[in-house]
Amino acid sequence: MKTKPDLKLSTLINISFGFFGVQIAYALQSANISRIFATLGADPHNLSYFWILPPLMGMVVQPLVGYFSDKTWTRMGRRIPYLLVGAAVAVLVMCMLPNSGSFGLTVSAAMTFGLISLMFLDTSINMAMQPFKMMVGDMVNEKQKAKAYSLQSFLCNAGSLVGYIFPILFTWLGIKNIAPQGEVPDSVKWSFYIGAAILILCVIYTVAKVKEYTPAEMAQFREATKEEDEKASAATGKDSSNYGLKVFFQVGLVQFFCWAAFMYMWTYTNGTIADTVWNTHDTASEGYQAAGNWVGVLFAVQAIGSVIWALVLPMFKNIKVAYALSLVIGGAGFAMVPYCTNEYLLFVPYFLIGFAWAAMLAMPFTLVTNAFEGNPRMGTYLGLFNCTICLPQIVAAALGGVTLKAVGSVQGNMLILAGVFLAIGAVCVFFISEKRKAAKA
Question: Which fold has domain 9-220+235-429?
Answer without folding.
Answer: Growth Hormone; Chain: A; (1.20.1250)
